[in-house]
Amino acid sequence: MMADSSGRQELFGDDVRRAYSEIRRLWLFSVAPLVVTIVTFIALLASNSVDTSSQYILVLYEATRLLVPLQVAALVAPWNIGHIMKLCSYWVGYRASVSRYRNNGSSTISDEQGTITSHLFFASPMTALMALGHACKPTESSIRSLGLLRYFPGEPRGELGEYLTLTTSFLSVVAFSHILFVGLVTLLAALTSMQTHEIITHVQVPIQHFGRILPDTCLDTKGMSDGMYYSCGVEPVTNGFFLANSTESIRTVNNASSLNQVLYESQSQIALLAPKDLDGSLDYTARTLGVSTRCRPKGKECRLRLKSNTDTRVVHSCPPDESAGADSLAVHESWAGNVIVVPGGTPNPFNYWIWGVVDKTETDLPSDSEVIKLMGGAISILLDCTVNVYNVTYSVQNGTILSEKLMTSMADDAPAYVVADPLALNFAQNQLYERLRLAAVTSHNTSELASTMSVFVSEMAIAYLAGIFEPLQNEEESTRKAVQVTRLPLALACITIALGVILALQATCFFLIAMGLLRKDPNTVIERDRLTLEARVSGAVWRDPVERSGNFPKE
Q1: What does the alpha-carbon distance between residue 118 and residue 495 come to, in Å, rounded to a whole number?
Q2: pTM of the entire structure?
Q3: Contacts of 458 (CB under 8 A, 6+ apart)
Q4: What are the TM regions of this chain, as residue ranges (predicted)?
Q5: Three-state SS sequence of 229-297
């Protein structure tokens, strides 16, 4: 007898050790694939994410490769249903052991063993659906209490016992959570797309010199020639002046320079000097000089009119030295211009008068009260332009000036003189006159013409100074690079990851419960083994439970 008892104890110990090993294996198979794949996916997101500021997360990674870890997890997830339900079978075994102890050796689950076996040991998405369908069927008692249920298709089901109810519930929850995870991964893959994204990298110390500044010698000195003061923008010659470094200025005026160009910011109405061919891959902030002009017609105010007894000459009543510099203009003369600085005042702003005669044009302007019509369909126009010179700090992003980041302050007197001299000496006369002719043809009224000339005066005034500016280091600088990124819905990605973590925690909970129940009652493994299909088919004779008196009080 002693040998018999010792053998039984030894076999029982082997069963318990086998059960512990199986529980660990089931938990490992349930958790490890999920943890590895989800951690890999999170690591890919964290190391390659370039933007999470919106409802999407942008990842510098190919979409088909990025989602591989989650797709592997989705493939493994249905298998985990069976693993977790096998862990759940230890709970059923524990309840059967308690039942057998309290009922003098007979278990209350014997009549449900077949169904419980299929639920616990053959759990799958299909089993879950079948179990849910069976559980949703009305019972005979429910049909009697609610007559409408008799129209439910199929035969009524029997009353579910405690264990079948719980295993069906567990199976449904486990299966639903895993199927939901598979569905979320599939939906995430469907909503994931590739798009072009620009990565901006800020440079700690700017290296480019896109700013423009007048040299110190230009600001500190002012020469005199033949009793006339002049700035560094021009240089004196016999009986006149020429542009300083005129080659670069003329190239810039005609948009042929490889170094400079004139940009016009329409919102602030400022023309400024910038480097040629702005690279869209480089954003920067720099300082430069800017010119803003406001022109308005003065024909009515100055009583612009035909000279008496002729239709080939026009006159006006404004003092010449305070306006266009001349009191009459003939058809063949075509142009007069003059810079006016208020006596005793500062040169910033200064006024620049434009008076021109445009030959016969097909235009709506002759009917405008600010315009005088001459012989042969020619017209005369008188404009007064107020020119402001500014110190400008501007920002360029993707090759475009950002109007909201453009900052201006009035420049000192010296830069204003530098801007005024080329205009006063009529270096821009030809370009301005041709633009006046074009504006006369394309404008519907003098206000529109004045707006057009305002822009062009600003552009010409700054362009004629291009040769004397020096490069200035950028204040800020950043590179812009277009890359292909994967776009994932941020909320859906977070929900999918969270559900994957929950599935791992779910398996861990069943693992801890199974381990705890097996430690509490080693007979759990015997009762659990009675439920396996192998035991039911083989008809093997099972050992009696090992006595563990005092564990469960009999009722």
Answers
A1: 32
A2: 0.62
A3: 264, 269, 270, 271, 291, 292, 293, 387
A4: 26-46, 66-92, 170-191, 490-518
A5: EECCCEEEECCEEEECCHHHHHHHHCCCCCCEEEEEECCCCEEEEEECCCCCCEEEEEEEEEEEEEEEE
Report pLDDT for 3. 45
Q: Residue 455 is inside which H or E element, if any?
A: helix 446-463
Name the percent of the chain lying above pLDDT 90.
Answer: 19
Q: Is the pLDDT of residue 241 over 80?
A: no
pLDDT tens, position by position, 137-154 = 777 677 767 766 666 666
Angle between helices 2-48 and 490-520 (to 10 degrees): 170
Q: What is the mean pLDDT of residues 249-266?
A: 88
Nearest to 87, CA basis, from 465, 510, 462, 521: 510
pLDDT for residue 333: 76
Give the pair of three-digit tokens for residue 294.
Answer: 């406001």
Please check whether residue 480 is in contact with residue 25, taking contact to mean a CB–CB distance below 8 angstroms: no
Reading the block at residue 424, the tokens are 């006063």
Report the pLDDT averaged over residues 153-161: 65
Distance CA 136, CA 129 (A): 10
- Quickly state the pLDDT bin for 553 (edges 50, 70, 90): very low
Q: pLDDT of 271-317, one tens digit each? A: 998 888 777 778 889 999 999 999 999 888 888 888 877 778 888 88
> For 146, left (φ over 0), alpha (ψ -120 to 50), or beta?
beta
User: What are the residues whose beta carbons fall under 8 Å from the beta carbon of 239, sequence distance 6 or more?
Assistant: none
Cβ atoms 15, 525 nearer than 8 A: yes
* Nearest CA-CA partner of 122 in 151, 170, 79, 165: 79
* Mean pLDDT to the nearest integer, 49-66: 85
The Cα 437–Cα 357 span in angstroms is 9
Chain-centroid distance, C-alpha 292: 35
- Cis (ω within 30 of 0) for the bond into 553? no
Quote the strand ranges of 366-511, DSSP E.
372-373, 379-397, 400-401, 407-410, 470-472, 476-489
**How do 282-297 and 379-397 pair as beta strands?**
antiparallel
**SS3 label, residue 206:** coil
Residue type, 301: E
Where does residue 229 rank: exposed (0-12), middle (13-18), buried (19+ CB within 10 A)?
Answer: exposed
Whether the Cβ atoms of residue 290 and residue 270 lie closer than 8 Å to each other: yes
Nearest CA to 387 among 453, 471, 325?
453
Query: Is the per-residue pLDDT at 467 higher than 80?
Result: yes
**How does pLDDT run across 378-414, given as a tens digit for each residue?**
888 889 999 999 999 999 888 788 888 889 999 888 8
Paired with 58 in beta bridges are: 51, 487
User: For residue 168, what are the contacts with CB-CB under 8 A and spacing of at least 6?
Assistant: 119, 131, 132, 134, 135, 160
CB atoms under 10 Å from CB of 48, counted, come to 15
User: What is the gyration radius of the CA atoms in the chain, in angstroms?
Assistant: 46
Residue 503 contacts residue 181 (beta carbons within 8 Å): yes
In angstroms, the CA 391 to CA 211 distance is: 11
